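User: Can you predict the 3D structure for this chain?
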Amino acid sequence: MQTVTLNNGVKMPILGFGVFQIPPEDTERTVTDALAAGYRLLDTAAAYGNEEAVGRAIRSSGVPREDLFVTTKLWIQDAPGEENAKRAFETSLRKLGLEYLDLYLMHQPFGDVYGQWRAMEQVHHEGRAKAIGVANFYPDRLVDLISNNDVTPAVNQIETHPFFQRTADQDVMREHGVQIQSWGGFAEGKNNLFTNPVLSEIGKAHGKSVAQVVLRWLIQREVVTIPKSVRAERMAENFDVFDFELTDDQMASIATLDTGSSLFFDHRDPAVAGQLGKRRLTD
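Assistant: Here is the predicted structure, written as structure tokens:
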């Protein structure tokens, strides 16, 4: 498996498996199938409600813990964020049944961000989170966090797909040593992604599906990606993207698909900030 090296030397698989929107009752089976297909990066979150099922799949898989890269995420905490964030971290570890995380992300750029980050820095210094990072941070918020704290986020997981390519964001991250990671790599099929003529034509040239073309495009941009599927055959197909390479012309063609706008929601929108900020998780 191809890896990227994070700013603290930790190696992270460039292709993993995400469990967003997979119901808890289906998660154990799908993660088991993903591990059998060869995935070693697993991405979940407290907000997904399926950490326990991910943990059961890990324990029953027989895959050595040191071969896995497990990510989960901290949801927005009530003030004071620092103490609540520590408790949230312990809860996630307990639900996953793990002694440490490979990556712990702040899920949203809202609430007591600095208190939450101090708590994350502490579990990182203790070695219980091998790396820490953020999600959904636009460049201004990311640079502000970096400028006012000791630990630079290792990863920023953001919406990244052919219709919202985030190249300028990636440039800022690269400048500061932050690894970009994609969520929504297939744009959840919006804008008819799976029948897009540009992507379809490129796929035809390589004997690959549109999904495989999108994953290959992300990988060649050095973007970590975590496609989701509940079908074992689709998981295997998504994993089979290391035996071909897109040409410069093909990469340039995909670049023309960028709209520069989110297909989901803009974290800079006050309504989005208010909606997310009101959501609280119960243990």
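The two ends are 35 Å apart (CA to CA). The beta strands are 3-5, 11-13, 17-18, 41-43, 69-74, 103-106, 132-135, 155-159, 179-183, 224-225.
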